[in-house]
Specification:
heterodimer, A: mainly beta, 7-stranded mixed β-sheet, about 0% helix, B: about 110 residues, mainly beta, 4-stranded antiparallel β-sheet, globular
Chain lengths: ~120, ~110
């Protein structure tokens, strides 16, 4: 069974860059699309963007200017960077896999990132 | 962007009773080439990631109890729990994966009455 684990700093200062890694186990990242989704505390889900194993990407228009998603196929890892963060970027960040039917079928446990000085 | 609107925002149902959650999309999520609605339902329990329950509007994910069912077409969809169990207490989200940006409903909190 595919499992994903997000990792990275839990605290980031305003104006700095948030960097997270999603490590995939029990399967390969090859052949699939991978998305990042975030959830502010007590709020709903917001899609950030996706990457295909070939490296092609697509981002939410609301975040496109500040987000970069990349991958390392040799390590089965997907990464997220968000530049110039503010308190509004405080959220639990999830990575998730798109199945062959395109629906998000497997999700990581998520990691809380707090933006604060 | 396709806006997903759920109703109600919260719902309290007695154990063993039926729970119904509605979701309306601001435009069609029907992919004409395969006649599939790109609409899914997720269950999120406190401190956990969302769990896929239903995709293509009415296809139950493997391992999901058959008391969960999805229905609807066009822009109106419904998640039904036929006989509420204590472990069904959660927030439920509808989700369209028809077009980018992918979007979610605001969530419906389901509690026991």
């Amino acid at each position: 069974q595919v499992q994903m684990q997000e990792s990275g700093p839990g605290l980031v200062k305003p104006s700095e860059t948030l960097s997270l890694t999603c490590s995939v186990s029990g399967g390969s990242i090859n052949g699939y699309y991978w998305s990042w989704i975030r959830q502010p505390p007590g709020k709903g889900l917001e899609w950030i963007g996706y990457i295909y194993y070939s490296g092609s990407t697509n981002y939410s228009p609301s975040l496109k200017s500040r987000v970069t998603i990349s991958l390392d196929t040799s390590k089965d890892q997907v990464s997220l960077k968000v530049n110039s963060v503010t308190a509004a970027d405080t959220a639990v960040y999830f990575c998730a896999r798109h199945s062959s039917t395109w629906v998000l079928d497997y999700w990581g446990q998520g990691t809380l990132v707090t933006v604060s000085s | 962007d396709i806006v997903m609107t759920q109703s109600p925002d919260s719902l309290a149902v007695s154990l063993g009773e039926r729970a119904t959650i509605n979701c309306k999309s601001s435009q069609s999520v029907l992919f004409s080439s395969n006649n599939r609605h790109y609409l899914a339902w997720y269950q999120q329990k406190l401190g956990q990631p969302p769990k896929l329950l239903i995709y293509w509007a009415s296809t139950r994910e493997s391992g999901v109890p058959d008391r969960f069912s999805g229905s609807g077409s066009g822009t109106d969809f419904t998640l039904t729990i036929s006989s509420l169990q204590a472990e069904d207490v959660a927030v439920y989200y509808c989700h369209q994966y028809y077009s980018i940006p992918i979007t979610f409903g605001q969530g419906t909190r389901l509690e026991i009455k």
